[in-house]
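Task: fold both queries, return tokens.
Query 1:
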Amino acid sequence: MAVLLEALDLSTLKRGRPITFDKIDVTLSYDEVGAVVVDLPAIDRNWELISLDGDGNLTPFGLVLGWDGVYEVPLLIEDWGFKRSLTDGRIVESLTLTGADFLSLLANRIAYRTPGSAWTAQTAGSTTYGPNPAETVIKTIVAANLVTAGDTARRVPLLTVATDQERGGSATYKVVHPAPDATTGTETATISQSLMDMVRAVDEQAPMGVRITLGDGELVFDCFEPRDLSESAVFSATLGNLPEAGLTVAAPSGNAILVQSKVTGATFTQTNGSGASSAWRRVEQFVDQSSTDTAADVTTAANQAIAAGAGKVNIAVTVTDLPRLRFGDDADDVQGYRVGDIVTLDIRDGVTYSDIVSKVQLVADATGDTYTETVTPTIGTTTDDAADQTINSKLSARLRQLERALRGSV
């Protein structure tokens, strides 16, 4: 089976005609918004996808990517570009579409303290969800802000939330609308975060992934627990599906956090991270909390600075599919893996590393002499700008164990 790209009518969520493409580049992410770039030949049927509003902006539209019959994901296209070039003596015109998967809906909404009311009716204070199973907390907040929101402009048409199965460990989430400081007018706490930030915060307490799939005329938001495939989904040079693997270590950008606040008796405080006691590794950073007299807020700010400034350990691998281990759904005698699954890497003899598949890049390229399809998963994290610094620092801590194991195997 081949890669299939279909149009998606956002008003009905019905599939349209298949679309001729030059190249598809889609990156799916665990508890983050995915990204999509699609290059199309500028033929008349593809121009029909482009519709502009009164301000000259692209009217968003949908696509459905079917990957070799083993995986399907709906996509939201929000931007476009046109290019004309002279190639091998002939004029070539192309369209480039960019967008995301539908988790962008979560990133584009903040969590209201009182989601049944409009923003102008919100009040200072906080609302705590839980303690409940992680799935319950996430689905309750998403449904209240995207499906039944009091402000109808916040509701997403044809979006449903799958039945809560109460999966995951216990979790809580506090939605805060802070009051201004009486003297400075500045906020004394972090304002409400996006729904995507909320998902990551809950995942930190009890691992829980989220996805939006296409149902019968509806978008379905659902949660899933990461599957532990560490025994059955193994990548190694011996098996032939791990041709490259590398580990890089970076020094901290801040490990001695110097904080100034209005906390009585503790105006000047200091929080140390790893290496701060060494004259050669100490990196000082100043964190201004002079607007708050709440000790808990100061502690949170210092811990966030420690996490952001911690020395990063990154792993980069190149893996390939095998006939019996591939990206996508399970099949007879075939182990499928997806974003959010836990897999194992055999880095070198006696050194293995198990972690979550945090990203998968899917590329279908018809621009060259030979049509190619590539699947590039990311295991753990490989970037310094992870969406959540706390998650990034925890992944780095696990990679430190791998670093020590590599040294010990020499």
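Query 1 returned. Query 2:
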Amino acid sequence: MAQNRSEITLDLSGLLCPLPVLRARKRLLEMDSGDVLKVIATDPMSAIDMPHFCNEQGHTLLEQAKDGEALIFRIRRK
């Protein structure tokens, strides 16, 4: 059975565009390929920016969910 890769949580609540994407990008660069980054953001623009960022950079957006005011993204590093 395949071993689960590590998942790191990055809470970017309160930050406004473009900071959530820039911080997520920086953190992903420090991670290994296949690792998962869980991003929590409160900026409504993140709902558009994060999927676009993943598409442009080749990362896989595993999940996009809403929990109250928080937007939650799970991104697998390319």
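Both queries returned. Flag for query 2: Residues 7-76 form a domain with the Translation Initiation Factor IF3 fold (CATH 3.30.110.40).
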